[in-house]
């Protein structure tokens, strides 16, 4: 497996393998943030196919509660491994380690990420990797259904922090 920064030519393959259906978290939107210097969009490749993604948002978490409690803390956002059969095989761990390495290369000594209250499996991974809970918040996002209709969503989450 290789983890690389997203390139413009990767967007089509990402949409084909992992359709985003997100209003602001689409592959193209994440790539645009990367081009603007706001983030780094990491893609793991296995046998020439994208098998997940994670965006390191250098601008931090958008939730006001997190920004107040952890100003200036970059966030690993949208960590995802697909297909599900590839989960628990080290891809998520490799994405987190790649994000942490990028932060250290920038002289950043802390990394954060959010996890939904119901996502026990991801929470266990992050705890194993040394992330500790800091602040509860509500993640608000929009989802596009197959007809393109926008639906607003919210999930109770906790922001986790790790000293690098």
Task: Explain what this protein looks like in three dimensions.
With 164 residues, the protein is α+β, with helices and mostly antiparallel strands. It has one domain (2-163): Gcn5-related N-acetyltransferase (GNAT) (Aminopeptidase, 3-Layer(aba) Sandwich), CATH 3.40.630.30. 28% of the residues lie in helices and 37% in strands. It contains 5 helices and 8 strands. It has helices at 11-17, 27-35, 64-69, 91-105, 120-128, and strands at 2-5, 39-46, 49-50, 52-57, 75-81, 110-116, 132-144, 150-163. Strands 1, 2, 3, 4, 5, 6, 7 and 8 form an 8-stranded mixed sheet that branches. A hairpin with a 2-residue loop joins strand 2 (39-46) and strand 3 (49-50). The radius of gyration is 15 Å and the shape is globular. The two termini are 24 Å apart. The mean pLDDT is 94.
β-strand number: 8
Helix content: 25-40%
Q: Which regions are unreliable across 5 or more consecutive residues at pLDDT < 50?
A: none
Counting DSSP H or I runs of 4 or more residues, the number of helices is: 5
H/E series = EHHEEEHEHEHEE
> What is the H level of CATH, i.e. the homologous superfamily?
Gcn5-related N-acetyltransferase (GNAT)
As a percent range, the share of strand residues is 35-45%
Q: Give the termini separation.
A: 24 Å
> What is the C-level CATH assignment?
Alpha Beta
- CATH architecture level-2 label: 3-Layer(aba) Sandwich
Please tell me the overall pLDDT. Answer: 94
**Oligomer type:** single chain
Shape verdict: globular
Major sheet: 8 strands, mixed
Radius of gyration: 15 Å
Structural class: alpha+beta
By CATH, the topology is Aminopeptidase
Please give the domain count: 1
């Amino acid at each position: 497996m290789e983890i690389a920064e997203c390139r413009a030519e990767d967007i089509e393959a990402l949409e084909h393998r992992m359709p985003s259906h997100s209003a602001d978290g689409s592959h193209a939107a994440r790539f645009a943030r990367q081009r603007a210097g706001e983030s780094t969009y990491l893609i793991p490749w296995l046998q020439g196919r994208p098998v997940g993604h994670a965006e390191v948002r250098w601008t931090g978490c958008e939730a006001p509660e997190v920004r107040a409690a952890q100003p200036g803390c970059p966030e690993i956002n949208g960590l995802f491994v697909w297909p599900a059969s590839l989960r628990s095989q080290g891809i998520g761990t490799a994405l987190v380690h790649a994000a942490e390495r990028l932060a250290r290369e920038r002289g950043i000594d802390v990394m954060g990420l959010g996890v939904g209250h119901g996502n026990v499996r991801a929470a266990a991974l992050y705890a194993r990797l040394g992330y500790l809970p800091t602040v509860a918040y509500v993640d608000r996002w929009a989802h596009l259904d197959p007809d393109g209709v926008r639906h607003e969503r919210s999930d109770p989450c906790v922001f986790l922090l790790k000293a690098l």
